[in-house]
Amino acid sequence: MTIDDKKLRRKIRMNAIILGLVAVAFFVTFIVLTALKG
Amino acid sequence: MSATAADIQDSHDHHGPAHTGIKRWLFTTNHKDIGTLYLVFSLIMLFVGGAMALIIRAELFQPGLQFVDPDFFNQMTTLHALIMVFGMIMPAFAGFANWMIPLMIGAPDMALPRLNNWSFWLLPCAVILLASTLFMPGGAPASGWTMYPPLVLQTGDAFPFLIFAVHLLGISSIMAAINIIVTILNMRTPSMSLLQMPLFVWSWLITAYLLIAVMPVFAGGVTMLLMDQFFGTSFFQAAGGGDPVLFQHIFWFFGHPEVYIIILPSFGIISQVIPTFSRKPLFGHDAMVYATASIAFLSFIVWAHHMFTVGMPLAGQMFFMLSTMLIAIPTGVKIFNWTATMWEGSLSFETPMLFAIAFLFLFTIGGFSGLMMAMAPLDFQYHDTYFIVAHFHYVLVPGALFGAIAGCYYWLPKWTGHMYDERLGKIHFWLSAIFVNLTFFPQHFVGLAGMPRRIPDYAVQFTNFNAMSSIGAFGFGFSQLLLVYVIYKCVKSGQKATAEVWDNPEGLEWTVPSPAPHHTFDEAPLYTPRHH
After folding, report:
1. Half-sphere exposure of residue B460, counting CA atoms within 13 Å on the CB side?
2. Predicted ipTM of the assembly
């Protein structure tokens, strides 16, 4: 399956990147908060 | 919003898989093949984790130490949990998600097919890494799946492998979650609005958000353990100014949403099965969506009910007690709505429905013990006893696992093109239902009587109920061999299944032939809701 619609492909990529960044943000935040608590 | 699925072109000229043989499975980007991979993997893991459970129950059949030394027993309890949670139940529901979400929303495939392949193939690598620790000096991790420091830092050679395996498992889940959200939000057939989506799709949409929020927190927690062990930090070591209890907070901030990540897809499957066999629409469809979303939201603010005995201030205990009681409300809404769906319905009791009804009753029992544990002062007695073990096994086994099995029987004809053997399915159900209760109900009593968790030997007054529980465990374990046979027989032979399979079921998956062709919905289907 190939998605020919460039706009849709860009939207999917954007969505995926944003969600990935959210995941990274949770990862980093908790480590930073823990370090600050210590 | 999603005028998108119609623009998707199928660039293959053929209609089967791109490769044959082993290459087909290694390199597949097809959601059905990847779904199959996840489901077969999780079925194998059911028996791997199950074998560990049987080693545990064999040792616990009688007081005294008969078969294994205490450290190996602890390795078994640890690995049993890690494999069942991360290797069995989560991949099982990921398999259902992969197979069914595109079919249910009229999409040709998942949004990110190559990421999908990676999400799956990380899993066998991670599990092999974890299982290989059994053969290392010092053995597998034996700290419990909760990995509390300082005990976990005494794991030995296996420690970095445990952390790495956990990271791989987490990355797999996060990538799968991203794929699911992006698929649901971008690739729905244009005629299907969000609130028109089936409950199974909604459950997974919400579960995917939970995964993205909390798996990284778990990863952060275990990374900090790794840093404490190897890089001289003191996140969780009191001597360096850190706090071991802080790990517990981080772990359970992940851990409580994790248990909802496990159960919500099961709720979704039950919401598909019960209306079909009641020949009635799901009672309160929108309320079910809002209840699921409420459960997910509330799951972030209850974590410390796993830690009532650590010495929390009273205000903290009160808060978590009240929030935990609150989460019972939307869960109750769901139980009542499933029951109301059956009320005055034209019921038939095929195997999926039997598992779904057993779920309703037995998950509720697990919920009741959960409500008892929500009361902080009462939890002081229950904590770290078999009462807890009974509770979570009731919500996980006749809860999550029965939901998965119900889904398996429900959709097997769609996947294979054959009806499964109904007689054998019913036998499988009754054996499972009887033995699961024999295994776990007595554990409530020994827990209340004071038997602690995670012990290979126990005081002699707990003998009779432990013996019952062990017999039940072996019965339950061997009954699952019947499931494997039913699946095998269904794949190979059986009465040909129609596209609809059941009696006028609702959903786009029943509009494609059985077995579903390798590629479906090359053009966006028109979705016409039956109700609303």
Report:
1. 0
2. 0.91
CATH of the domain at B46: 1.20.210.10
Q: Which two tokens stand for residue B169?
A: 């498992």
B113 CB neighbours in chain A (<8 A) are 1
SS3 state of residue B341: helix
Structure tokens at B268: 């979704």
Q: Which of B312, B470, B327 is nearest to B386 (CA)?
A: B470
Distance (Å, rounded) from C-alpha B514 to C-alpha B365?
Answer: 37
- Cis ω before B515 (30° cut-off from 0): yes
Give the span between the Cα atoms of B473 and B440, in whole angstroms: 8
Q: How far apart are the C-alpha atoms of B230 and B524, rounded to whole Å?
A: 53
d(CA B430, CA B427): 5
Is B342 contained in some domain? Answer: no
Alpha helices in B187-284 (DSSP H): 199-230, 244-278
User: Chain B partners of A27 at a C-beta cutoff of 8 Å?
Assistant: 216-217, 219-220, 223
B395: in domain: no
> pLDDT digits over B462-489, tens only?
999 999 999 999 999 999 999 999 999 9
Pairwise CA distance, residues B257 & B271, whole Å: 20
Q: Which residues in chain B have their CB less than 8 angstroms from residue A16's CB?
A: 111-112, 115, 178-179, 182
- What is the extent of the structural domain holding B69? 27-197
pLDDT tens digits, residue range B310-333?
Answer: 999 999 999 999 999 999 999 999
Q: Is residue B54 part of a domain?
A: yes
* Residue B241 DSSP label: T
* Encoded amino acid at B220, one letter: G
Asked whether residue B110 is domain-assigned, the answer is: yes
End-to-end CA distance of chain A, in Å?
A: 50
Tell whether the torsion through CA atoms of B505, B506, B511 and B513 is positive or negative.
Answer: negative
DSSP B44-107: HHHHHHHHHHHHHHHHTTSSS--SS-HHHHHHHHHHHHHIIIIIIIHHHHHHHHHHHHHHHHT-
Average pLDDT per run of 10 along chain B, which is 532 residues long? 43 66 94 98 98 98 96 98 98 98 97 96 98 95 96 94 97 98 96 96 98 97 96 94 95 98 98 98 96 98 97 96 97 98 97 98 97 97 98 98 98 98 98 98 98 97 98 98 98 96 96 95 90 61
Can the peptide bond before residue B150 be classed as cis, meaning omega within 30 degrees of 0?
A: yes
Please judge whether B115 and A16 are an interchain contact, meaning their C-beta atoms are less than 8 angstroms apart: yes
Q: Do B217 and A20 touch (CB under 8 A)?
A: no
- From CA B406, how far away is CA B275, in angstroms rounded? 13
Cα→Cα distances B378→B189, B257, B317, Å: 50, 23, 12
Tally of domains within chain B: 1
Burial class (CB in 10 A: 0-12, 13-18, 19+), B453: middle
The token pair that represents B272 in the structure block:
């598909």
